[in-house]
Protein 1
Amino acid sequence: MCVGLSAKVVSVKDQTAVIDAGGAQREISAGVLDELEPGDYVMVHAGVAIAKITETDDEEAVDVMEGLI
């Protein structure tokens, strides 16, 4: 099973984005998604933003992950 991580986009430059996932920031590849902007929420897998999601989706994903720990 693969697990994606939800995160908020902090900045985007070229095809790289900086995301914030629970207070931890890191660079990821953003080349798969069109028109990604700071403030967007994304699902990240293996260092790649694979889908845009809503803020509600992000909150639900965080709740599920916290429930697993």
Protein 2
Amino acid sequence: MYVAKIYKLRRTSTLALRQRKVALLRQLSVPADLLRASYVERFTTCGKPNCVCVRGQRHGPFYYLTANLAPGHITKLLLKTADQQQAAEHGVRGYQDHWEHLEQLSQINAELLRRGEPLDGSVR
């Protein structure tokens, strides 16, 4: 199961870690259109006995935005237009990029703590 990308930071100098942290903080702004969801392409069968989908030529593609809000609470939205599909793809990618930056920042902070360094950048 993929949880987070692991950044190899132990052999990185403290100065380089601090510089990367500053760069990440400059980049971090929450995109207004981000979506914590999945963008899904599906092909389906309709169940009609004489339809071409019975012979393997499925209907679709159909594009959906799905989100797991809580156990047992999944939302699914059919994206009917190309504009909706493009917006959904962009929003999901924005969320993933934002999460990746936060994860990298968190791992840098953990490595600085492991080294006994302050997180705020002050000199001891």
